[in-house]
């Protein structure tokens, strides 16, 4: 039956309006579908990407074990379920190889400091960068309130998606308790860290809360797992019980030489980690796989 049977000539203007609306709706549907299939659009994951992720986001579990290596060729031979590697330096082929072996891959990047060796360093504005990070040459604290900084972090999350990472580990997300050179506060830090979590989740990425010990209770609902450095050495591990209580794993690294040189001290460390249900590694500070002792035996 033709459209003419339903719409006499005298209602031609209505027909035109109907067709225009239909074409418009069809176009909108196509546009939504196109953006829904892309996790790296110009909006950086804002505006509905969450509902468009085709695969469910990886949720780490308490039993997950891990390896952390950020420098050198990644040693893929450890019998763990999670690898944490550098976002920029790790080849996509390595990520794919680890995943083919049944492992999840977390990709590290600094979200709170500029690093002058990174490929996108030139995109930071002078006003974005503050004081140097003590002990880390070439790094400066970032003004995490900056829209430019946030856009760059969105681009880094897009890179994590493009390289096939299952999750991310944004570092230096506690600038407000350091001498950053900016008037950062607990409130601005919470806002920034939740921004990172939301942007990660919109892209289908799990996200670790790195250190930021004073805000663990505030952020446990926003992050999928915690990554801590040296809580045993500095007697800060009690703070992480809230993640365990919420069935979110705690990955812990200790660097003190006594743990690598003294088997008795290491045994004591591992007993405490086991009681807490932490996954503790004793690693070199450079995270270059020079040595590795795991409390997960």
From TrEMBL:
Domain of life from the UniProt record: Bacteria
Recorded coiled-coil stretches: none
A Pfam cross-reference name: Glyco_hydro_114
Residue span, Glycoside-hydrolase family GH114 TIM-barrel domain: 65-290
UniProt-listed PANTHER family: ALPHA-1,4 POLYGALACTOSAMINIDASE, PUTATIVE (AFU_ORTHOLOGUE AFUA_3G07890)-RELATED, ALPHA-GALACTOSIDASE
Protein's UniProt name: Endo alpha-1,4 polygalactosaminidase
């Amino acid at each position: 039956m033709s459209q003419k049977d339903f719409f006499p000539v005298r209602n031609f203007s209505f027909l035109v309006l109907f067709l225009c609306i239909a074409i418009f709706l069809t176009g909108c549907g196509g546009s939504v579908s196109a953006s829904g299939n892309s996790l790296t659009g110009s909006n950086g994951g804002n505006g509905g990407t969450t509902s468009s992720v085709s695969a469910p986001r990886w949720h780490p579990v308490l039993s997950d074990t891990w390896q952390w290596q950020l420098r050198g060729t990644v040693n893929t031979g450890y019998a763990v379920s999670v690898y944490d590697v550098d976002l920029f330096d790790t080849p996509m082929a390595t990520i794919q190889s680890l995943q083919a072996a049944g492992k999840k891959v977390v990709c590290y990047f600094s979200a709170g400091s500029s690093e002058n060796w990174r490929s996108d360093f030139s995109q930071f504005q002078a006003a974005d960068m503050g004081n140097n990070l003590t002990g880390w040459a070439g790094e400066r604290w970032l003004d995490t309130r900056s829209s430019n900084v946030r856009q760059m972090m969105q681009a880094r999350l897009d890179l994590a998606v493009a390289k096939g990472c299952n999750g991310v580990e944004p570092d230096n997300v506690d600038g407000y308790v350091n001498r950053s050179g900016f008037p950062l506060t607990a409130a601005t830090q919470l806002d920034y860290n939740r921004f990172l979590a939301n942007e990660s989740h919109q892209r289908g990425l799990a996200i670790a809360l790195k250190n930021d010990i004073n805000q663990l209770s505030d952020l446990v609902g926003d992050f999928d797992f915690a990554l801590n450095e040296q809580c045993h050495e500095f007697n800060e591990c009690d703070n992480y019980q809230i993640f365990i209580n919420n069935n979110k794993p705690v990955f812990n690294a200790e660097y003190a030489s006594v743990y690598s040189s003294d088997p008795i001290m290491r045994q004591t460390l591992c007993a405490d980690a086991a009681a807490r249900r932490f996954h503790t590694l004793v690693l070199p500070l450079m995270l270059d796989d020079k040595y590795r002792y795991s409390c997960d035996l």
